[in-house]
Amino acid sequence: MKEDAREMPENLTGKQAQALATLLAGSTVEQAAASARVNPVTVYRWLQQEDFRQQYQQARRQVVEQAASNIQQAATAAVSVMVSIMGDTDAAPSVRLRAAQGIYEQATKWVEVEDVQERLEALEAAMRGRKK
User: Fold this and answer.
1) 107 or 10: which leads in pLDDT
2) What is the 8-class DSSP label of residue 37?
């Protein structure tokens, strides 16, 4: 996602959009204020305003979701590499073993996460049933 003041929602002023874009790029409030040519206190005040804060949080969520998507894509490639190494009879046995261990460990963690997810969903369903 390209953070650019021109892509910010229309209900922000140009200076707010610039500050928001700078914050999303990982800069400090002080740097965002300098970028928007306002006092840092102004940026802190904007962050207390519901509309600005919601847009900042939504944009941050989008950045995190994009990063998570990139990680998922890289994980698929990483597993392919590990499977390839594990099956490579020319590779050193210790390297093949480490690849196999990595695959096994991740598979085990995935099962544990799924189990916890199922238990959490059951608990949430039970709590919803009690509220009715």
Assistant:
1) 107
2) T
